[in-house]
């Protein structure tokens, strides 16, 4: 990390990059704060940890045509960048990618729920987090499900932080396959139980790098696609239509789930998209920056049995 | 002050209306009185997340307008001083001329029983404003002496009439001493910020790069505005049903793009950072200018709920040093 910081400082001083986007510690140890700087002296403040919650590619839209921005990205976040590149939204040459060794990302709200106490300190010890020097929690228990089923990326980074990539063991979407076996009424019962808490704060939308529409369908008055209230019908309409828009694009980074203050397991939905994409089409979104957008190409050998 | 068993206190209050108590998740009919602040403020008792204002009933060629009048009596038990301070501020907005009849009706139908606070967390900074954990607010206030007993007293006329106060014994000297001591200790554990702003410099602050940099991490989701005890923005929508059109009032958030979108298509706060800057300005400049009080109660819920690790206290400090720097 120190070598990378030295290099970033030099790049800023020499004007090769315009600024650096990353995380600095915040007043809550379980969630670091997003921070941007153009000042070489600030580079030392950056931190890389399990507690970096949002996907930084979301913030890139704020720097359009502003020069080259360096940012810290985990593999799934690099894939999100690749999708944005293949969709023509971001130019690769405008971004300086700092590869981050990953061991998953913690959902701060789930961690709070698990320890049920105010969090004053966190310390990572192997596969556990020690909270307040007293309570030990398995990292796996406080990660979004997406972290357990993450896919690899064809690495295209400008610089890499040394460190072992300790991503959690691959579970081959077993939870999704189990979910598939449920009856429609069982599935609905699950949705009712988990999504009823949604307050429609749209943190999941705002944190998502794929949600870059200037005006979201839920914000439309005419036509009114989704009513503004909190009935389960409206809540599910929002989440399921959002998922339609994610199909083939979402890289299952889990930022939506980590951002949700109500602990809704949103990455189960995004993992389902990833599962179908891989199973039925052998496609992994954002695997590299050159593959075509999933819904933007077709092959003769594509399964067509859904068209009758 | 009177000393009452918590169980009896709750029972007596339930004669006034349905009792909602403070739990970690919010103010609920069931659950145990929490020893933390709730994630959500009790503002929804006066300004519900969604509320039908009127219904237009289609009857063939005729229509009938039915106005909705909230009438259920509710007791909000265990609201902390920061919650009550928040309601004071929203009430200033809604009961200022012209009065909001729906809000007013809810005020009349709700009995606020506040609890003096012994639960400071690291995100709290209420003493930075003109009140604190020992402030006696609402219709009735109480102090939780232990798991079973409370010391309480009425504040408003409504509170005086709500219970038969004479039947309860007065609190003893010792109990009062314990209360004073505990409340003093709570106040000591709270972070106090220096906020001495020159409100006439609002424009200068709004245009400053200090403010822009301070709010950078904000993602513009509505999480903080929904848990905030003083955010009261709403939207009115007409919803069509089979034989009805319902006019509903729903919460809105200044963080959203459509909040400031004008009919012409122009959006004065199209830029994300401008929306976050505006929220800060509203709480710390515009509201003091209009109502002579800050629009923030220091409850710290926005700090707790932010997915991007944004902390409003950092912005408060940064603007304080901006004020001092430019003055000096």
In words, what does this structure look like?
- By secondary structure, chain A is α/β, with parallel strands linked by helices.
- Chain A has helices at 2-13, 75-86, 108-115, 174-180, 184-195, 203-206, 232-246, 255-259, 267-281, and strands at 19-24, 33-37, 69-73, 95-99, 122-125, 128-131, 135-138, 159-160.
- A 5-stranded mixed β-sheet of chain A has the order 2-1-3-4-8.
- With 328 residues, chain B is of the alpha/beta class.
- Chain B is built from 11 helices and 11 strands.
- The longest helix of chain B has 20 residues, at 272-291.
- Chain B is flat and about 65 Å long.
- The model of chain B has no long low-confidence stretch (mean pLDDT 93).
Give a short summary of the structure.
Chain A is α/β, with parallel strands linked by helices and 308 residues long.
Strand content of chain B: 15-25%
Rg of chain B, please?
22 Å
User: What is the number of domains of chain A?
Assistant: 1
Number of helices of chain A: 9
Largest sheet of chain A, if any? 5 strands, mixed
Give the distance, in angstroms, between the N- and C-terminal Cα atoms of chain A: 55 Å
Oligomer, anyone? heterodimer
Unreliable runs of chain A: none
**Chain-averaged pLDDT of chain A:** 92
The helix-and-strand class of chain A reads: alpha/beta
Could you name the ranges of chain B where pLDDT drops below 50 across 5 or more consecutive residues? none
Order of helices and strands of chain B: EHEEEEEHHEEEHHHHHEEHHH
Query: If you compute it from the alpha carbons, what radius of gyration of chain A comes out, rounded to the nearest whole angstrom?
Result: 20 Å
Provide the succession of SSEs of chain A.
Answer: HEEEHEHEEEEHHHHHH
Number of DSSP strand runs of chain B: 11
Number of helices, where a helix is a run of at least 4 consecutive DSSP H or I residues of chain B: 11
Q: Tell me, what's the shape of chain A?
A: globular
Strand arrangement, major sheet of chain A: 2-1-3-4-8
Q: What does the largest sheet of chain B look like?
A: 7 strands, mixed
Report mean pLDDT of chain B, rounded to a whole number. Answer: 93
Intertermini distance of chain B: 49 Å
